[in-house]
């Protein structure tokens, strides 16, 4: 059965960490494609997005251009909120009924999974591909498939840890550097940086 990865996020802006996760997940998990799904109005970041939906969609499209395995999906931005991952995955499952779905996330998101909206329903729909983040970014903690097994029985069997470079890159830090007029070259693709400059995004904004 064909495998499809789903990488959601605000992508505000999209950066090399997103691209590395998608590329290494595709290789590690044998994914035919990875859907990049910009978030419309994620409940945990409501009112915190800095660029508009259409700017974020355009930046993602620019960032993934040229990689035939990467595909932009508007599944989240073209639907009414609230925008929970569970609802998104149900939509993706309907759009792609004959594939094995993998929801891709960083280790920090996996750490917080029990706090998500009905997390026990998410891994009934899809498997989870998890990439670790450097421990010093979010505190010293161990990333294990069974770390939530007591609260979410059966989760561990649905988790695969992705072997990938540990890049400590965060959009909030990129925006702060831009605000301070510091270089972010190689933290974001050149086409994304050019788009940011052309549209005056993230100027004079506190991250």
Descriptive overview:
- This protein has 207 residues and is of the alpha/beta class.
- The protein has a single domain, classed as HUPs (Rossmann fold).
- The chain has helices spanning 16-29, 53-64, 85-95, 107-111, 119-125, 171-179, 190-199; strands at residues 3-9, 33-38, 70-72, 100-106, 127-131, 159-162.
- The chain has a 6-stranded parallel β-sheet with strand order 3-2-1-4-5-6.
- β1 (3-9), α1 (16-29) and β2 (33-38) form a beta-alpha-beta unit.
- α2 (53-64) runs antiparallel to α7 and α3 packs parallel to α5 (119-125).
- The relative contact order is 0.19.
- Mean pLDDT is 90; it is low at 136-140.
SSE order and pairing:
Elements: E1 3-9, H1 16-29, E2 33-38, H2 53-64, E3 70-72, H3 85-95, E4 100-106, H4 107-111, H5 119-125, E5 127-131, E6 159-162, H6 171-179, H7 190-199
Parallel strand pairs: 1-2, 1-4, 2-3, 4-5, 5-6
Helix pairs in contact: 2-7, 3-5
Keywords:
207 residues; alpha/beta; Rossmann fold; six-stranded parallel β-sheet; 6 strands
Question: In a few lines, what is going on in this structure?
Answer:
By secondary structure, this protein is an alpha/beta fold. 33% of the residues lie in helices and 15% in strands.
